Amino acid sequence: MDASNLSIREINSLFTKKELKPSELYSKVFENSANSEAALHAHLTLFEEENIKKAAESDKRFSNGESAGLLDGIPIAIKDNINIKNYKTTCSSKMLSNYTSPYDATVIEKLKEQNTLFTGKTNLDEFAMGSSTENSAFGLTKNPWNTDYVPGGSSGGSAASVGARSSIAALGSDTGGSIRQPASFCGLVGFKPTYGTVSRFGLVAFASSLDQIGPITKTVDDSRIIFSSISGEDSRDATSVINNQLDIPSDNTATIGVIKELMEDGISDEAKNEVNKVVEILKSKGYKVKEISIPIIKLSISIYYLIAPAECSANLARFDGVRYGLRVDGNTSYEMMENTRAEGFGAEVKRRILLGTYALSAGYYDEYYGKALQARKEMIDEFAKTFKDIDYLISPTTPTQAFKSGEKTSNPLEMYMSDLCTIPANLAGLPAISIPTGLSKDQLPLGVQVMSKPLSDNSLLDFSEIIENEVQFDGQPKGWL
Amino acid sequence: MSLKPTIGIETHIELNTNTKMFCRCAVVDTDEPNISLCPTCIGLPGALPVPNKKAIEFITLLALSTGCEITSKGMFHRKNYFYPDLPKNYQISQFDLPVGLNGELEIVIDENKDYIQIERVHMEEDTGKSSHSGSGRIESATSTALDFNRSGVPLVEIVTKPVISSSKQAVAYIEELRQLSIDLNISEGRLEKGNLRFDANISVASEDSTELGTKVEIKNMNSLRSLERAIDYEIERQTKALEEGIEIVQETRHWDENKEITSTMRSKEGSADYRYFSDPDLPNMFLSEEFIKEVETLMPLLPKAQREELMTTGLSLSQSNILSKSDEWIKKLYVKVFDQTKDSVASYNWITGELQGQMRKANIEVLPEWFNDDYLPEIIELIKSDKISFTSAKIILTEILTTNTTPSKVAEQKNLFQENDSEKISEMINQIIQENQDIVDRIKSGEDKLVGFLVGQLMKQSNGSVNPGMAKELLLKELED
């Protein structure tokens, strides 16, 4: 059995029994990256030197029986929009190609306390804007199942890395599906927690009211372990909430809703079949399953593409060449800022900044951004109403399997549509998870998404684990170990 | 055509909190640049703002003390504009839901009260400081140095309605606001340090017009004197222009302290669209009734109430106003001196006239430790009971300001007790008459003014210890005989 294929709990048990050393696991994981990076380009940077040292320290702790943490010595890949002190945080942008962070994100502090190893920083769509990891200033990432295909995005590097086992698990960030969609494309579990349960301090903001950090893992239990390690109220993030979890049933007394609007046109038969497959299993186990209509979901993409760009137009204003990052000279300060931004940002980032600036402009605010806020509020209310009778909502994670590299790059709108099923959870702040359930006829992974009410993350994970156990998806991309 | 000016004033008050508005960096008062910074106040990627509770308490105090309605569900907005000393290229400010709305401030001009309506009181963060070299302006600077110590310092903006009609009123308003912020202990209130900064919107229109004229904003007034002169200059400029049939352009003008003129900075046509939207990093600012009640308990006696209290001692409105705007120790000293003497005019005159005058002349900033609260009452009492002359009292004051002694000791040592014994005075008069027979003759032949000379001689010879009133009376009597 290859150790890099095991779950966190299995690995920890081997560490504790002294049947495996953290340094041996790290060697294996590093070897996997040596085998896969040239073909996949999951990582932008690898922290080999530091990890050899840290793994040796983990070895010592386990051999002395001193370690208590489940994440001690576990190599985790970090999306390169999360700050790790003294390492580069590039956000896959030319703008930050030379930027080194002087501080740790809260999630990194928490993982460091548990003696987690960081394999390195993973590739993403520039500033997390994209659905294929093709918008990176440092080259695209490939899907480990088939390198003709994209790994999804924007956390494509994180997903590809876990897929190729060049890390045991990974952190991503999810603004409109950026954890769940790549997890689904790469046959993995991707979990976006309730908005506010994981601190955003140190996550480079794309759209502050939607961004949330979460895990991409091989199993639901791995996601649970990471979530419980990185969540919690943070005095440095005013939007963080006390993680008071609601207990809702996960056994067959729970009621399941299938979202009608996400089983209609625009969703492939293959994607629908996966949902139907899971529904049949649940029914057979005695769960009550209903079809639920939430019509406003059809407006998700329109709402999202006003709110997210509006927020990003302000969030990315700080990249001006004045204090850090790229600077392109000009004759005046303003010319310098203009030149820097013209050269530092890629096309998709510029497109969204322009969209957002327009949506907030005098005379257009009410018509665009203001309306989007109103619709978002309505969507939140609709979900709240739905969750009065329904415990879990089920849908495809993505309308289709992974698409080919280059297939949608010239058509941004079509690219945006690939987030149709994942965006509602961000708009409403709900916890949402993608669980791998099967393969398409092209032998590419497919997944289903489950959502539940805010702060029911733990119950959602319990319920997802039941599906995981029933579906028994044990597919794994070949050729990287 | 009779013209009338209308003025509105925007004031920024720098709060004297220990730490900045949205991070926990110390607020520092130093020329050494960039020593109090963190990821948040220099806008590093991933850093987040967390509001300073003390600052919210301070602004609530100010809003309550100006009679504003408190917005219980307030909100922070982002004000978007690019400038090198604004690290995020947006300023966290407030827009349509400021902390306070519709207040009023009582001001005093000579013996009259007036009321200035306040439109809004809102919270924001300060910017850094730019020093442009090569020219004072960013457009033509050869280089710009940036200091971010001030970046993120809490600022309160108070905006009046357009209700001010003269420079005198404007100055009285700023004086009142300054004193209010000092008494509330929310600001040092030091104009020369920029703790209080103000801009004025000035327009001129026909006396009987119901509409305001075209508004011109005046910036860069750094003192009360420049506020007064700039307003007077601008009213005259606009009045003259209108009388000559020249149209006023809506613009921002710069007050030139040296030339004492205003000149065009930028016209409103090219004005920025700030694209305000609610800051997604900062959840709604909810000021509960409980919180407001708690803040109310912190309310000190406001300048207006102080004036009313002082007037009950017998002071006029203008005297009370001057005292209410004096340093705290002066206000306290007045109360103590008045309590003992029950003579408001003498207490007021001795404190605000002689005492402060002598201290200024001798460069004494604080009263010496030995300076007992009883000293001034003692001096006032000695004068009242004719034991010393007013001239002697001044000498005594000078002495006790520099030497650890008491008024009566000084009077004794310097022989300043007044001679009130008419027999003794008559003796001395007789001697003077004998010694100045020629003068006496001239007086008798009609040179009346020479009486003063004889009194002077008498004072000289007695070292000023003779009661001058009595001396003159007795001398005249003697000369008649």
Structure description:
- By secondary structure, chain A is α/β, with parallel strands linked by helices.
- Chain A has 2 domains: 3-251 and 396-471, Amidase signature (AS) enzymes, CATH 3.90.1300; 298-373, no CATH class.
- In chain A, 39% of the residues lie in helices and 13% in strands.
- Chain A contains 15 helices and 11 strands.
- In chain A, strand 7 (255-259), helix 8 and strand 8 form a beta-alpha-beta unit.
- In chain A, helix 2 (22-40) packs antiparallel against helix 3 (48-63), helix 9 (300-315) crosses helix 11 and helix 9 (300-315) packs across helix 12.
- The radius of gyration of chain A is 21 Å and the shape is globular.
- Chain B is of the alpha+beta class.
- Chain B folds into 3 domains: 3-293, no CATH class; 326-413; 422-480, Arc Repressor Mutant, subunit A.
- Chain B starts with a strand and ends with a helix.
- In chain B, 37% of the residues are buried.
- The chains are: A alpha/beta (481), B alpha+beta (481).
- Chains A and B meet through helix 9 and helix 10 of A and loops of B.
Mean residue pLDDT of chain B: 92
CATH class of the largest domain in chain A: Alpha Beta
Strands in their spatial order, largest beta sheet of chain B: 2-6-7-10-1-11-12-13-14
- State the strand order across the main sheet of chain A: 1-3-2-4-6-5-10-11-9-7-8
Rg measurement of chain B, Å: 30 Å
Shape of chain B: elongated
Brief synopsis:
The complex is a heterodimer of chains A (481) and B (481). Chain A has 481 residues and is an alpha/beta fold.
